[in-house]
């Protein structure tokens, strides 16, 4: 007879919001002396719960997510010693120093009770501040230091469909901290809206429940901009075609 705790609960989906990404700061002269001579930044890459602790400068991490995550493996650039790093207990994060940006592979392994396969996501390590229009893409280190920490975080949701009964019990015993309904801090990533970039520099970002609506509005605004550009270039193309036809008629008249 099957163990009732190992029977899947059909038709049930349960979600756990997470974030993954990094924060980075410029190394002080003293810190550079004790690290690799070419390294310019200290950075931390992490997988955390989406909600942020109250009155904290940390992005996310209000909840302990080890009840459903067993291990996080960070695959760094091959130039790092032992580039595949396993973190088997919270906080699921890794701190290093370096000078360049690169893609980090993040493999999330769930607890055995879940019966779920590991998932892999990718994050581009961000070290340099996001530049506004007309600014150099990478500011000098002394300027970057004054701009404060760089944050690059991605919100995601882990969805468990038809969970085992014992795992469902485990999840329901640990409800996630709700996200704040409204934005209380700067945006947690920097979109193409440079006014928001200016407002978010040097601040500590926070994810909130209205983020999806804001992102939808930004995408709709971008869609309208693209359509307007298409219409503008279509008009230019029509005018150029008319000009070509006019010139062709003049050539034909001269030939006759």
Any key phrases for this structure?
256 residues, 5 helices, Immunoglobulin-like, 29% helix, alpha+beta, 4-stranded antiparallel β-sheet, 26% strand
Number of domains: 2
**Alpha-carbon distance between the termini?**
97 Å
- The CATH topology annotation of the largest domain reads as Immunoglobulin-like
Radius of gyration, whole Å: 25 Å
The CATH architecture term of the largest domain is Sandwich
**Low-pLDDT runs:** 189-200
* Oligomerization category of the chains in this entry: single chain
Q: Helix tally? A: 5
> Describe the biggest sheet?
4 strands, antiparallel
Overall average pLDDT: 86
> What sort of overall outline do the alpha carbons produce when their principal axes are compared?
extended
Percent of residues in helices comes to 25-40%
Supply the CATH superfamily name of the largest domain.
Answer: YEATS domain
Overall CATH class of the largest domain:
Mainly Beta
Task: List the secondary-structure elements in sequence, H or E.
Answer: EHEEEEEEHEHHH
How would you sum up this structure, described in words?
The structure is a single chain. By secondary structure, this protein is α+β, with helices and mostly antiparallel strands. It folds into 2 domains: 206 residues, Sandwich (Immunoglobulin-like); 46 residues. It has 5 helices and 8 strands, in the order E-H-E-E-E-E-E-E-H-E-H-H-H. A 4-stranded antiparallel β-sheet has the order 5-2-1-8. About 5% of the residues have low confidence.
Topology:
Layout: E1 13-26, H1 29-34, E2 41-49, E3 69-75, E4 84-87, E5 92-98, E6 103-110, E7 119-124, H2 141-147, E8 150-161, H3 165-172, H4 194-200, H5 211-255
Antiparallel strand pairs: 1-2, 1-8, 2-5, 3-4, 3-6, 6-7
